[in-house]
Design goal:
The protein is of the alpha+beta class. The chain contains nine helices and eight strands.
């Protein structure tokens, strides 16, 4: 008996499921966006139903090949080992602190401010999500401290023997202390000890962030984002964009708008 998959049957099932999801979204929402797992590659039924699709990237690191934290550390680029050693010499310590939603948000907001971007989540929603994830026992937050002051953090989610580097941030003025490398290095060593098989770095789409994550020598994987915008939402977006371009106050005749 052949072990080959029935491609036609699999694609038919995939198409049926996606069409159901698409119909529900189009009926209930003016705007829908779905980020798919790197293991889910066939998003064609979304496209056939009028959705737009674009490619994104993430990094995955398989921990099953490493026998110890020392072995894992030797896998990293030399710049990472240098950063972790520097953090240690600067007396940077890393601990798990889970009841810290407000501090997490503040550090996250500061990190987005570096890149001149707005935080894509409210403090209230983040607090609610962290509380729920903690209650399910699938969330760990690592903080790097220097002189008892938090300087960097990383939030990791756990599902199906994979750790996801969900959120991270740090204070800009303490960047020379190498807190982010200390946090990630500590978290990866813990994951190895806990027999976690994979680390998903959750995104490699911003050049500066990709540069930081790639130094841990993971493997890059593509994944797909699909989205649908209704005509009403598209018009509203265009109006909003036009208003943002319009001066906040009209200048008097002969004056130059500020």
């Amino acid at each position: 008996m052949s072990n080959a998959k029935n491609v036609k049957k699999d694609e038919s099932l995939n198409k049926s499921i996606i069409e159901s999801v698409s119909e529900y979204c189009l009926e209930h929402y003016d705007y829908s966006q779905i980020l798919n797992s790197p293991t889910f590659v066939d998003v064609r039924p979304f496209i056939w139903n009028g959705w737009g699709a674009s490619i994104r990237y993430t990094y995955l690191l398989c921990l099953k090949y490493f026998s110890s934290s020392k072995d894992l550390a030797m896998h990293y680029d030399g710049s990472v080992r240098w950063s972790i050693n520097k953090a240690d010499k600067n007396s940077v310590s890393v601990n798990i602190v889970n009841d810290s939603a407000e501090l997490i948000y503040d550090l996250l907001a500061e990190s987005y401010m570096w890149h001149r971007q707005e935080v894509p989540i409210s403090k209230e929603l983040l607090t609610m999500l962290l509380k729920e994830l903690k209650s399910r026992g699938i969330c760990k937050t690592y903080f790097a401290f220097h002189n008892d002051h938090p300087i960097s953090f990383g939030v990791f989610l756990f599902y199906n023997n994979t750790a996801y580097y969900w959120l991270g941030g740090s204070r800009r003025e303490t960047s020379s202390l190498e807190g982010p490398s200390a946090v990630l290095g500590h978290a990866l060593a813990d994951a190895l000890t806990d027999n976690i098989s994979f680390i998903d770095f959750v995104g490699a789409n911003t050049p500066s962030i990709a540069k930081f994550k790639s130094a841990f020598n993971p493997v890059i994987y593509p994944y797909y984002l699909v989205e649908h915008v209704s005509l009403r939402a598209h018009i509203a977006k265009e109006i909003y964009s036009s208003l943002r371009r319009y001066p906040k106050t009209r200048s008097r005749e002969g004056e130059i708008p500020s």
